[in-house]
Amino acid sequence: MHENRLRALIDWLVDGARSAPDPIVMMTQTCERLVEAGVPLARVAVFVETLHPDIYGHRFIWRPGKEAEVGETTVDVDLSDEYLRSPLKVLYDHGVEVRFRLDDPASRNFPIFDDMRAEGITDYAALPLQFLDGSFHAASYATRQPGGFTDAQLNAIRAVIPPIARLVEVLSLREIATTLLDTYVGNRAGARILAGQIRRGHADMLRTAIWLSDLRGFTALSDRLPPEVMVKLLNAYFDCQVGPILRHGGEVLKFMGDGLLAVFPIADDRVDEVDVCARMLAAAHECRVNVAAMNYIEGNHVIESFRFGVALHVGQVLYGNIGGGNRLDFTCVGPAVNLAARLERIAGRLGRTVVASSDFINLCGDGFVEIGEFPIDGLSHAERVYGLEVETLQAAEGL
What we know:
The protein is of the alpha+beta class. It has 13 helices and 16 strands.
């Protein structure tokens, strides 16, 4: 063993591995430095659980001379046969180090070792990465060295586990914070919050295309459907919109019952505002098709012919922290948002799916026709409102 190199590796990890801020690079360099310190590694794998609505955890697998493999495990991985017959289950169940020489008959109880033996692996050790909250994660090390790891080599691996655990925990907590912010406030707002924009009143003026939609007949549905069915229905309905909005460059800011508020930010110099509006309109067309094709069947509950309405507008909004006491919401407010809400109500009264303001039409008017001037609460003048030409033709034909 090269004690000086091992000590330098531990010091580097304790100091936060500052020369390798990327987690994958950090783990790759840790493995390479362990080899340089005299640990003959053939394979290293790290498994870290996370807090995510769709992902159970992350995995990192390193082999010398190859690019590291990184991936995600699904939320039900702990129920899979692969996991239930894995040595990692022993580690997670008891929080203890697990070691098997692959010529030991007991290793035959774990199918994963069959593949490792085919790679020439002779020894395997999995060690718990314990976080400060008491949770266990795992790092496994394997070698092709005849006779397996020596005691000195295993002790070297054990010596780097505590600093690796602390560093991985810091990175994991930051990743969890980012995920939760993205999930609940959107990635643009989440990035601002992580950057320190957390004080009440801390807001910026932003020119944006505004999307405000809701589900038609929501009150009647809520009255006759059990709450658990209504929640499933709303999730299916929002799935019809969120995907298209995100794919076309929008950001979902808020769900309000059956309502959805989204923004498509425009550059400060407005050079992209025509393109932004075109992308928002493309998302609206896609959502219109998705909702029209939607149906919900569960037990005796059969619901078809879903309809929704969306208002499209462009304007300045105040984007930032608003709230009272220590409870804040990162959202957008302003006359432009209020006008979008009024337009959406007009869409409902007219039975329209997509309506747009004159500000939006001035930038992206293809496929729209004027459907009239309407008084707007709080405004001294009437607002010209536009609807999709295809819906006008359908109405004229009695469809």
